[in-house]
Structure formats: structure tokens, C-alpha cells
Amino acid sequence: MEQIAKIQEQIENKPWKTAITIYKNGKSIFENSLANTTYKSASLIKLAIALYIQEVKPQTINNEITLSIKNVVGGAGIINRLSIKTWKIRDLIDLMLSLSDNSATNALLSYYHLDNINSFPNKIFKISH
């Protein structure tokens, strides 16, 4: 439990908010007071998408996606300014990570399904002793 004490020390009394739950053998062994708090963190999903593709679907990296109107949004990125509608997945990943392109993110979320990506980090980011 020394590792948990170190983690707790790192997250308590800091100017930033941290929500954390640590599981061991499928059971929660540590949860701080903010563990059930929801945070707006749109860009963090981009890391999960890239990791999901790398670990679960690497064979799809050269597949092409034709963007639909619902995938193209404003905000960060360049896809919404271009007339190109069909992209290789590897290029969408690059735009998503390097330019924080929201349209690339939406296209990848749609292609790989949000539920698959949301459940993937829970399978790999577990601390065990």
C-alpha cells in the first residue's frame, strides 16, 4: 500500500483537481473524494483513440474513411477548411494528435465506435501489486 500512499500524497492539497480510482483484481482498493466527479476533457479521448487503434486495430491504419457532414465540425484543426473528404486513418490520427483536429477525432470515434474506445482504457490502465 506504499504506492497508494504516494499517489494520495501527489493528488491531495494541490491547486488542480484529480479524480482517481485504483482497482486490484477487479475491485476498488482506493478512491479519492473526487472519484465520481465528471470533468470536461475532450482532448484526452484523442489519446485513447490513438492507443486503441495501435493496440486493438493496427491492421486498419491504411483503411480510408469518407467523412460525413456530421463528422466535420469547427474548432481546432484543418479538415473543416478543406474540400478533401476521404482520408486514410493514419492521416486522421496525425491530424487529430498534431493539430487537435476535432473533425478527425469525430470521424475516428464514429468509425471505431465510442463504446469500444471508452471501455478500452479501463482494460489497460489498472494498477496492481
From TrEMBL:
Gene Ontology biological-process entries: beta-lactam antibiotic catabolic process
Pfam families: Beta-lactamase2
UniProt keyword terms in alphabetical order: Hydrolase
Gene Ontology molecular function: beta-lactamase activity
Domain Beta-lactamase class A catalytic, residue spans: 35-122
UniProt cross-references to InterPro entries, sorted A to Z: Beta-lactam/transpept-like (IPR012338), Beta-lactam_cat (IPR045155)
SUPFAM superfamilies: beta-lactamase/transpeptidase-like (SSF56601)
Record's keyword annotation contains DNA repair: no
Protein's recorded name: Class A beta-lactamase-related serine hydrolase
